[in-house]
Amino acid sequence: MLDKKTLFSAVQPSGVPTIGNYVGAINNFVKLQDDYNCIYSIADLHCLTVRQNPAELRQATLGLLALYIACGIDPEKCIMFVQSHVHEHAELTWVLNTITYPGELNRMTQFKDKSRSHADNVNMGLMDYPVLMASDILLYGTSVVPVGADQKQHIELTRDLAIRFNSRYSDTFIVPEGIIPKYGAKIMSLADPTKKMSKSDENLNAFISLYDDTDTIIRKFKRAVTDSDTKIYFDPENKAGISNLLTIYSVFAGVSIDEAVRQFEGKGYGDFKIKVGEAVAEGLKPITEKRLELMKNKDYLNKVMIDGAEKASRIARKTLSKVYRKVGLYRAE
Ligand code: AMP
Ligand code: TRP
Using the 8-state DSSP alphabet, how is residue 49 labeled? Predict the structure, then answer.
């Protein structure tokens, strides 16, 4: 246990997670839990950067913990906690802000995209979002961070900040690496396969929520936009829709992409789409059952998050106190 490296990742409890979150992130959280000391956070402070309904945010926070456990993250093996329960995240963000330049933040793709989609609420938190994310990661001596492709730039910034702090104040932070899956790092919208699948898409047919029922899942896959060709093969550039469906199928059916292509050789698009829908519905069924059962046991979920926050705090406290000392904040001892 002790000689394992530390892995950190998080998901925001905003809206309902999609199969993009599952394939790009949560499924890999489960797979990696034996190889690293894993810390999985629920990034509620990040959610505040766009307008939230407070009651829904609270409910989604509990729901995401239930989902983590239902997907197979083991609370005995991993630390799971809610970001705002460990105050060091906000505090380290303040210090890292003092070594971050506005130019580094306003050129972030996600900031630019969200400034466009939330034009009436372009706030400082939205711009500072990647610094909070860097704090999440750096507080824990993290070596690896499994994320989807959209977080690559944020990991780069985290590395830059770690290197900058280390060279200004002496070696303090481990410089982390992102783990971005070879396939499935960017699951595309079912309505427009040139766009990322996103839970905030206005078109409900564009994404599969992890809370969708079987009929809804199959209906959405039947309507998935593909192309006017008839052959099923993997070519993300020229056959974005079909390649996206093959990727989704390969994860939920537990087969390689090659094997998926082989299974559908000579089959029509209609059949293929139904089979993908069935594989996803089948894969999500036990997760949904477990999640709903867990949601009935709020005491248990509360206990897991309190335990998690205690364990996380112990590590975060040490890192922050080292940082405060290095930058010259006086400690009365
Ligand atoms: P978020 O929902 O923005 O908190 O994202 C949580 C995790 O899911 C991050 O690691 C994202 O990169 C990943 N993710 C979100 N959407 C997708 C997608 N469409 N395809 C693959 N990964 C995704
Ligand atoms: N920003 C990430 C996302 O929306 C979620 C996140 C917050 C995260 N803190 C993190 C991911 C730290 C990895 C590590 O996808």
Answer: T
How far apart are alpha carbons 323 and 99 in whole angstroms?
13
Q: What percentage of the chain has pLDDT greater than the value 70? A: 99
Ligand 1 pocket by Cβ (under 6 Å): 11-12, 20-21, 23-25, 147-148, 150-151, 185-187, 196-197
Could you tell me the distance, in angstroms and rounded to a whole number, from the CA of residue 245 to the centre of ligand 2? 25
DSSP reduced 3-state for 197 = coil
Of 6, 33, 22, which Cα lies nearest the Cα of 177?
Answer: 6
Fold of 6-184+298-327: Rossmann fold (3.40.50)
**Two tokens, residue 304:** 């897991």
The residues spanned by each domain of the chain are 6-184+298-327, 204-292
Instruction: For residue 11, list its beta bridge partners.
Output: 42
pLDDT in tens, 164-214: 999 999 999 999 999 999 999 999 999 999 999 998 889 999 999 999 999
Q: Which amino acid is at 210?
A: L
Q: Which two tokens stand for residue 221?
A: 């896959």
